């Protein structure tokens, strides 16, 4: 008796038998998010690295944050949003949030919200510090996501948070952080163009 007849006899179609032998790849929302955040890290670092170290604090005018500040701000905000997601404690306001234990130490006291200059001396040192902070905060996000499951992403809407995050589910916090990263990265790309620098290609760094 050939295999086809045997499978028919025991009630299994040949296609069902073949599919049962295929490797199972679990595509979860969490796994997709991790993949996207790894791409975001690579692309964001490529944009950052494109600026020469002597222009790391370039700003188009006195009312805008510097190139370096945008990336410090990205790192801090990613650390903040994902920290709120992961922490069992709640933070009703921004002042309380700033005291949270989950924050990675910032390497420089430069303002994260208003035009300012880094306290660190030397262009090379400044660029190195910002890059390391950016890498560490991206790694914090990716590591945190690996501890979640899809069901957890649906929760969190009722958790107490600062006003600008109220009503956010855990998934909302992850998506909000990535959207915020894109917002500031795009401004940094504009800074590159103003310095006559061609920015890294988007598709090259984001194709799966």
Automatic annotation (TrEMBL):
Pfam families: DinB_2
InterPro entries, A to Z: DinB-like, DinB/YfiT-like
Transmembrane region(s): none
Superkingdom classification of source: Bacteria
Residues annotated as domain DinB-like: 39-188
UniProt name for this protein: DinB family protein
Protein's organism: Hyunsoonleella aquatilis
